């Protein structure tokens, strides 16, 4: 299920993938471009996932049902 550990596990996976990209990027004149592109891609995808995940895990606005009659709504 969804919990706070998912963020940390995802971060560990991204760090491992970024480390692999650093060491296994093709050698040559474009090595820096490969490294930068892969690591930026991993980090960007992780940030997008983490923000979306956390927004759903702890929403700022509580959902309300609109199909209830007024006498059943407790304010």
UniProtKB/TrEMBL annotation:
Top-level taxon of origin: Eukaryota
Any one GO MF annotation of this record: proton-transporting ATPase activity, rotational mechanism
InterPro entries: ATPase_V0-cplx_e1/e2_su
Main location: membrane
Keyword Ion transport applies: yes
Family classification: Belongs to the V-ATPase e1/e2 subunit family.
Protein name: ATPase, V0 complex, subunit E1/e2
């Amino acid at each position: 299920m969804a919990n706070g550990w998912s963020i940390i596990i995802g971060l560990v996976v991204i760090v491992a993938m970024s480390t692999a990209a650093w060491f296994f990027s093709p050698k040559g004149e474009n090595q820096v471009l490969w490294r930068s592109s892969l690591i930026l891609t991993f980090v960007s995808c992780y940030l997008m996932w983490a923000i979306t995940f956390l927004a759903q895990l702890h929403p700022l606005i509580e959902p309300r049902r609109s199909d209830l009659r007024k006498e059943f709504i407790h304010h």
